[in-house]
Amino acid sequence: MSLRVNHSNLIGVVICGIIVASLGIATYYRNEAWQSVESLWSDNLKKSQTTRVRINYAAAMMQQGCFEEAIYELTETLKNDPQSAEAMNNLAMIYTFQDRTDEAEKMLFRAIRASGSTAKGVGIAASAHNNLGVIMVKKGAAREALGHFKKAVELKPDFKEARENLKLISQAIKPKGGNGNGKN
Question: What pLDDT does 6 receive?
Answer without folding.
Answer: 59
